[in-house]
TrEMBL record:
Record's protein name: ECF RNA polymerase sigma-E factor
Domain of life: Bacteria
Signal peptide: none
GO biological process per UniProt: DNA-templated transcription initiation
Example of a GO MF term: sigma factor activity
């Protein structure tokens, strides 16, 4: 069936057409997500979330426009959110470890301090502009818009730099875990 016809049917809620759309694009989304997420279960979650989002926003897309572009934007945003969630979860764990100061064991505190130091060292390995943007985001708690204004670039460029920084940190954390384990 022609893509335009499938999209028209999906837009009006045809589940069979949606299944065809899924069959046609799921592997493309999966392969793209694998470039940024290493866990196959998380990649599968991304694919699922992408197609849930496609279904939820089916009445907003225009079947005369490029569906690949629409799908790419949704996929990119979901991957970015996963990366942000991963970093926030890591940050939360570090904060939680620091919160046990009164009843801590020395080993746990050393591990948390070592992890923070390791992440700080990783950040220094980023290209200077990416490092600056990442620090503005995480240490100064500036919004992407504020950072974009200060750096005279677009918010999308800021999002990309933060995503690349998070990917670099995530890709290099397993080395720390192996070393400390």
């Amino acid at each position: 069936m022609e893509e335009k016809l499938i999209l028209e049917k999906v837009r009006v809620g045809d589940a069979t057409a949606f299944a065809l759309l899924y069959d046609r694009y799921w592997l493309k989304v999966y392969n793209f997500a694998q470039l940024y997420i290493t866990s196959s279960s998380e990649v599968s979650e991304v694919v699922q979330d992408v197609f849930v989002k496609v279904w939820e926003s089916r009445d907003t897309f225009d079947e005369t426009k490029n569906f690949d572009g629409f799908l790419f934007i949704i996929t990119r945003n979901i991957i970015f959110n996963y990366s942000r969630r991963y970093f926030n979860e890591l940050n939360f764990r570090m904060t939680a470890l620091k919160g046990f100061e009164n009843s801590y064991d020395m080993e746990a505190e050393l591990d948390a301090a070592d992890l923070k130091n390791y992440i700080d060292r990783l950040i220094t390995q980023l290209p200077p502009q990416r490092q600056r943007i990442f620090r503005m985001s995480r240490e100064q708690h500036l919004t992407n818009k504020e950072i974009a204004e200060q750096c005279a670039v677009t918010e999308k460029a800021i999002e990309r730099q933060i995503t690349l920084a998070l990917k670099f940190i995530k890709d290099n954390l397993p080395l720390f875990i192996v070393f400390m384990g």
